[in-house]
Amino acid sequence: MGQEPQTQEKTAWTLRLACGGQRHAAGSNASHHLAKLAKKYGNVYQIRLGHLPYLDAFIYETMRFTNVTIEGQFIPKDTVVFINQWSINHDPLSERTPYLNPSRFLDENGSLDKDITNSVMIFSAGKRRCIGDQIAKVEIFLFFAILLHQCTFEKCPTQDLSLDCSYGLTLKPLDYKISCELHLNSAVTALSVTEKT
């Protein structure tokens, strides 16, 4: 803004007037614009977000894609940047340990702790959040509920299972072998034994 004094002046006057400042610079385009706004809305306190188009325009101008340097790393404009959700969900500062422990999401009464579950980024966040997150959660819930109700899973005795995975845009589990036994088999066996006796 130091290189654009007119932009700075107009934006500053917008803020001053919107926040209750009554100073006006003679001949200033900004003060003229803001005086019109104050007249339109009755007083400066009635000017709300969306009614300060120059301030909105200034904010959009500062948010345009451009070259940027973050912590010494130059990122050229038009670079596609992804959030590493795995790193966010496994941040050691968040006290999440790397092993599987569903109990970490339960409170002392055995109910889901919403504060903790809301801190896990599964479907991204903000405006770019997956619009199908609710249906996906229901589908995942039903998928696991049916599988766990109908089947027993066991690891191959000659292979150690790991939570490690290969990284890309999505995480892919390493190759593994498991066995799956339908509970139906044991129910049928029990029923046939009962019928024979």
From TrEMBL:
GO terms for biological process: hormone biosynthetic process; progesterone metabolic process. It holds the Pfam family p450. GO terms for molecular function: heme binding; iron ion binding; steroid 17-alpha-monooxygenase activity. Keywords: Heme, Iron, Metal-binding, Monooxygenase, Oxidoreductase. Heme binds at residue 130. InterPro entries: Cyt_P450, Cyt_P450_CS, Cyt_P450_E_grp-I, Cyt_P450_sf. Its cofactor is heme. It comes from the Eukaryota. Belongs to the cytochrome P450 family. This is Cytochrome P450, family 1, subfamily C, polypeptide 2. It comes from Sphaeramia orbicularis. The lineage of its organism: Eukaryota, Metazoa, Chordata, Craniata, Vertebrata.
